[in-house]
Design goal:
The structure holds 3 protein chains of 3 kinds. Chain A is mainly alpha-helical. Helices cover about 55% and strands about 0% of the residues of chain A. The longest helix of chain A is centred in the first third of the chain and has 29 residues, at about 5-30. The model of chain A has no long low-confidence stretch (mean pLDDT about 80). By secondary structure, chain B is an alpha/beta fold. Chain C folds into 2 domains: about 1-55 and about 235-375, no CATH class; about 60-235, no CATH class. Helices cover about 55% and strands about 20% of the residues of chain C. In chain C, strands 1, 2, 4, 5, 6, 7, 8, 9, 11 and 12 form a 10-stranded mixed β-sheet that branches. Classes of the chains: A mainly alpha, B alpha/beta, C alpha+beta. At the A-C interface, helix 1, helix 2, helix 3 and helix 4 of A face helix 1, helix 2, strand 1, strand 5 and helix 5 of C.
């Protein structure tokens, strides 16, 4: 088989897999919607305000409740909390 | 039919290293003939070949190929003429290393985008004709000197040009291979190709198939007031 | 058209033969590039999934929360504040909330302790989030001793463990009754953490917030819209610092590619000369160089992106464990709902494939424009 054909097949295959991933994501979103709804209901019932992602500090645990002073209290340069700060940036300026 | 009218080629014009490689050459080359440009190195043979083969433009003068003047053609068309009309065999063979013989032979046709089965068939036929069929799948660097030269010839023929231009083709070949080369040139002539060779090798210049030998020295042809 | 396609295919044929000559080096290049894209795509996919989760799940957070700040610090507030807020026009109801953090030396984890609006347990009972149950290895019926503010221990009985599906919102929660909360933290009666407000008309929330600030000095209102905005922006991939680092790596990579291509070896220059001499035009040579870059970057993108998807969704971002865990001891199970945003994927594609391909072509320009007759004369 011609090498360019092989490469083309590889690209087409990869594209197909990527499309399949997209479909998988879509299907999973539909399938797990009730599960997500359950979490939303819990949030309503308990009056929660944040996702529970990083529990090492106040301002990483409750990302929406912390103000800019909270990290500053720990350490002057601590606006960004390493390493979770690499995924979650600082809160928006009001 | 190729005609050159008072062609001059000057390199680095106006600069201290100005060089007049071709100095007023007028020449007519008949179709289906074998012409040899004889002369020592530095005589301007290579430059003249590249002018004939539409690889470079002359500084002054006119070149007519098959009734069509190519000197004033825009770059685009010049390349098309070159691709369609001329096939080149270089001194060094100049195959691309790491790539198979077959692919080397097919390379000139790649940019033209023609159908591949036809190209493959043509290339294989050429390799067979040159006794290289069994080396089609070998990498170019594994070919012997003679085989490489023959592969270069096959490559020059793949686009079915009307004219073959060879620059010192026997420079790296022994006597036996040089004779074989000239026999092959005879076959090309029989297939109605026009062949122009630049060489100072007597085996080439004195070969029976050569129709005309033209001497060249200091950018001028013999008998032109050199 | 047919000719154009065939021309591309021929050139790709040659490009692949050409790349295969230095197979080891090119495979290494491909793998490194794929790794960079993998890391970048992993972060992108993960943060996008978190953003979607936040949008879906935090739809119904309290409309308005009122905190009290003293000298820049979050402080507890008196009961009178609840009444004042409730009295503002437009407010349907106001409720004092009690919540805080407890560090547990036994499991060395931080827990969030909270009194929900209607706690369904009795005094002395606690409802746990799944993460806490894991950390302390307890089940309903077990006793859970908690260290109180004064060094004594308050033992609660586990009434219930919230379901596993609740991980992402409730992993570290301890739900208790008001009395137990006050005992645990030494918070006097009539003092609260903040106020949760229900506003009659959603459009009035901003106005009410303004009134709160004027009415109660030191009050910091947080609206539902602000919470939504926070989650939208902090997971914006442009602000993540990992992305910055990785973009740096990508740029460094492009520079290496540029350097590789611009310092064309004598061998490569010779080959370009041969191609020009046998009839290839400058545009053909440049196209070949472009495909050289494109072949590697397309393959790297395909590998990197696909592996990233598998890594983040079924794989729960396993390889980035240290980043996610940070210093926390309690990490929720990141079983995120998969999402593949086409816009984001396309952006990633253009940011990774194009620069590399360009970095391979542009430096080859000079060599590609060599005159064919110059080759003959060498």
């Amino acid at each position: 088989m011609r090498s360019s054909t092989r490469f083309l097949l590889f690209l087409v295959g990869a594209g197909a897999l990527l499309a399949a991933a997209g479909l998988h994501a879509s299907a999973e979103q539909d399938r797990r919607a009730p599960e997500q709804e359950g979490r939303a209901a819990l949030v309503r019932r308990l009056g929660l305000t944040d996702l529970c992602l990083f529990t090492e500090a106040r301002y990483t645990r409750h990302l929406s409740q912390a103000d800019r002073f909270s990290p500053f209290q720990e350490h002057p340069a601590s606006l960004e909390h390493f390493p979770s700060g690499s995924i979650a940036g600082p809160p928006p300026r009001d | 039919m190729i005609e050159l009218r008072d062609v001059r080629k000057v390199y680095n014009e106006g600069r201290p290293d100005e060089l007049t490689a071709v100095d007023g050459v007028s020449l007519k080359i008949e179709p289906h003939t074998v012409t040899v440009l004889r002369g020592p190195s530095g005589s301007g043979k290579t430059s003249l070949l590249s002018l004939i083969g539409a690889m470079a433009r002359p500084t002054s003068g006119r070149i007519v190929v098959d009734g069509r003047e190519i000197t004033s053609l825009p770059e685009r068309f010049l390349t098309d003429v070159r691709r369609a009309t001329f096939g080149f065999v270089f001194q060094q063979g100049n195959l691309i290393r790491g790539v198979t013989t077959l692919e080397n032979v097919m390379l000139p046709a790649y940019p033209l985008g023609g159908p591949r089965p036809a190209l493959l068939a043509r290339a294989r036929a050429l390799l067979d004709m040159l006794d290289l069929g069994h080396r089609a799948g070998s990498k170019a660097e594994w070919l012997s000197g003679g085989e490489a030269q023959r592969a270069a010839i096959a490559r020059a023929l793949v686009n079915e040009p009307k004219v073959i231009i060879a620059d010192e083709p026997t420079a790296h070949l022994d006597t036996k291979l040089s004779r074989e080369f000239m026999e092959f040139v005879a076959r090309l002539k029989a297939r109605e190709k026009t062949v122009i060779i630049a060489s100072h090798d007597p085996l080439v210049c004195d070969a029976p198939t050569v129709d005309r030998a033209v001497g060249m020295r200091d950018g001028r042809l013999d008998g032109d007031g050199a | 058209m047919r000719t154009w396609i065939e021309r591309q295919r021929y050139i790709v044929d040659f490009t692949l033969s050409s790349l295969a000559r230095r197979k080891g080096k090119n495979v290494a290049l491909l793998l490194v590039y794929a790794l960079v894209i993998f890391a970048l795509a992993s972060v992108l996919f993960f943060t996008e999934a978190l953003r979607r989760e936040a949008r879906a799940v935090l739809r119904d957070v309290p409309e308005l929360l009122v905190q009290r700040t003293v000298a820049g610090r979050h402080d507890l507030l008196p009961e009178s504040w609840i009444g004042s807020v409730a009295g503002i026009r437009g407010v349907a109801s106001a409720r004092g909330r009690l919540w805080g953090y407890s560090y547990d030396p036994l499991s060395r984890a931080n827990y969030t302790v909270m009194v929900p609006e209607r706690f369904w347990g009795a005094k002395g009972e606690v409802v746990l989030g799944p993460g806490v149950a894991r950390a302390r290895d307890v089940a309903p019926g077990d006793k859970l001793p908690l260290r109180a503010f004064d060094g004594t221990y308050l033992t609660l009985v586990v009434r219930e463990v919230l379901p596993a599906d609740a991980e992402l919102v409730a992993s570290d929660l301890l739900l208790v009754g008001e009395e137990d909360f006050r005992s645990l933290f030494g918070v006097a009666p009539g003092v609260f953490t903040d106020v949760a407000v229900v506003v009659r008309n959603a459009k009035e929330v901003q106005t009410v917030a303004g009134k709160v600030t004027r009415l109660l000095p030191g009050a910091r209102p947080i609206t539902r819209a602000e919470i939504a905005r926070t989650y939208d922006s902090i997971f914006d991939w442009r602000s993540g610092l990992v992305v910055l680092v990785l973009t740096g790596a990508l740029l460094a990579f492009a520079i290496v590619a540029w350097d590789k291509a611009s310092g064309l070896s004598a061998e490569e220059k010779r080959e370009i000369g041969i191609l020009k001499a046998i009839g290839w035009e400058t545009s053909d040579v440049l196209l070949m160089k472009l495909w050289e870059g494109a072949v590697i970057s397309l393959a790297a993108f395909a590998l990197g992106a696909l592996l990233a998807y598998a890594h983040v969704f079924p794989g729960k971002l396993a390889l980035f464990g240290p980043v996610l865990r940070g210093w926390s001891t309690l990490t929720p199970d990141f079983r995120l709902v998969p999402s593949l945003d086409p816009y984001q994927t396309a952006t990633l594609f253009f940011l990774t494939v194009v620069p590399y391909a360009v970095a391979t072509v542009v430096p080859s320009w000079r060599a590609a424009t060599i005159d064919p007759d110059a080759v003959m004369r060498t």
